[in-house]
From TrEMBL:
Protein known as: SMP-30/Gluconolactonase/LRE-like region domain-containing protein
InterPro entries the record matches: 6-blade_b-propeller_TolB-like, Oryzine_lactonohydrolase, SGL
Pfam hit, one: SGL
Domain of life per record: Eukaryota
């Protein structure tokens, strides 16, 4: 089958029996500016006949495009959070808004830095008419989940800041269930990166019901719970473990860089996570953010781009980004 432009076929049968040093250069050798690596032809049905990968914003001053990536359809804008950088010797994370110029299919965006007072923001999700941000917090601010209105003056409201009086570690990512409950991860990265005090809780995943105030730990035993998302029918919850990167960015390939799947079951009228299983392990970097499409395919930002798996855990393709999802020139690569 002929491939569309900007695509390269990954010879996985050959690679499986070849030496390890072969695969990475061969897979992307014809995609110096990024593109799409086809592991299975089912990926082509997702890409369509003429897929493109475009740079819509970049910043050489600091790593401005790291987490969140929350699209607000009503305003045609994307909210992002930076990675940590230092200003006057102090660590900072910057929230920014990408706004399309010209409407329609324009690929021109403006970038506006916004300071709503959320300290060390990380992941985010659509919530009400705005964005629900993960606030990692500081040594004096416990952080938690903070709702921000998407229009000026960007008023905020803390949704939850503790587990029965104990501070969270550094809330990382969040998803909202159709029943209104909020599920989020809380690894110990903040302590390891010297922005938070010693942990008062294990690395866990939580469910919070804003209607009743009930907060429960729903998963433990994951060394660095990071991204999470539900399958389209909400019968499966995917959680990434990014323990292969720890401390101040130390990478150890013998630690987990995995995605786990859990069944969402109901007992005594309450949801529980059951039947934990390894769904996938990334071959490059760590699986950070994670999302599903309407067909149940799973997407995760990894070391060399966005990896795509079937609901059965087979890697069918990569949206290849030279240098990774946040690259050396700090570019943001959305998918259209």
């Amino acid at each position: 089958m002929a491939l569309p432009p900007n695509c390269e076929r990954y010879p996985r049968t050959e690679v499986a029996s070849n030496k390890p040093e072969f695969f990475r250069a061969a897979a992307a050798k014809n995609l110096p500016n990024g593109g799409f690596i086809i592991y299975d032809d089912t990926f082509l049905s997702i890409l369509g006949p003429a897929p493109e990968l475009d740079v819509i914003a970049e910043n050489d001053a600091y790593p401005f495009a790291h987490e969140a990536g929350v699209y607000i359809p009503a305003h045609d804008e994307v909210w992002i959070t930076s990675n940590q950088f230092k200003v006057a010797g102090k660590k900072k994370i910057q929230i920014a808004k990408l706004k399309r110029v010209g409407g329609g299919g324009s690929k021109t965006f403006t970038v506006e830095e916004v300071d709503p007072g959320i300290e060390m923001a990380n992941g985010g999700v659509n919530y009400r008419e705005g964005v629900l941000f993960c606030e990692q917090g500081t040594f004096t601010n416990p952080g938690g989940l903070v709702y921000m209105e998407a229009t000026p003056p960007y008023r905020t409201q803390t949704i939850i800041s503790n587990y029965h009086g104990r501070w969270f570690n550094s809330v990382n990512d969040v998803v909202v269930h159709s029943d209104g409950s909020i599920w989020f991860t809380d690894p110990t990265y903040g302590y390891e990166q010297d922005i938070r005090p010693r942990p008062q809780l294990p690395s866990q995943v939580y469910r919070y019901d804003p209607r009743t105030g009930d907060v429960r730990a729903v998963a433990d035993g994951i060394r660095k719970p990071n991204g999470l998302c539900f399958s389209p029918d909400e019968k499966t919850l995917y959680i990434t473990d990014t323990d292969a990167v720890h401390g101040e960015g130390v990478y150890e390939p013998d630690r987990p860089a995995s995605i786990y799947a859990f069944d969402v079951i109901y007992l005594h009228g309450a949801p529980f996570l059951a039947n934990k299983r390894l769904f996938a392990m990334t071959d490059c970097g760590i699986p950070d953010g994670i999302k599903c499409d309407t067909a149940g395919n799973v997407y995760s930002g990894c070391g060399d781009g966005v990896h795509v798996w079937t609901p059965g855990g087979s890697l069918i393709g990569k949206i290849y980004v030279p240098g990774g999802c946040t690259v050396r020139r700090n570019r943001k690569f959305p998918i259209e």
